[in-house]
Amino acid sequence: MSFLVLSLILLTVFASACAQLVLKLGVADQKMQAAMQSGIYESALAALFSPFIWFGLIIYALSVVLWLWVLSKVDLSVAYPFVGIGFVVTMLFGILLLNENVTPMRIIGTVLIVGGCVLVGRSA
Description:
Elements: H1 3-28, H2 30-38, H3 40-48, H4 51-73, H5 76-79, H6 85-96, H7 104-123
């Protein structure tokens, strides 16, 4: 696997994790939370006018476009396991930016996922 392809795989995974973070910030907004308590129509309307939701969707869409390019260059069985690295990035976002509590079991599970990604990457 070339350095460019590997870099783009990692960029795609990072962008997708960033999109998840921004979407989480969008749904954590007080207006969005109130709308979600009111029902599906109110939730959809609040999401339609949420800058965080839109920004998260745009980042996610860009990561999908980049992912399509990646898939045109490498086997799916090689590329897709790298998506597991997103678990690490999102866990770090949760800890560092959202002040989430992460248990030792979650950390061990995430380390096992990373180990699998390394083995798949080395086999390519």
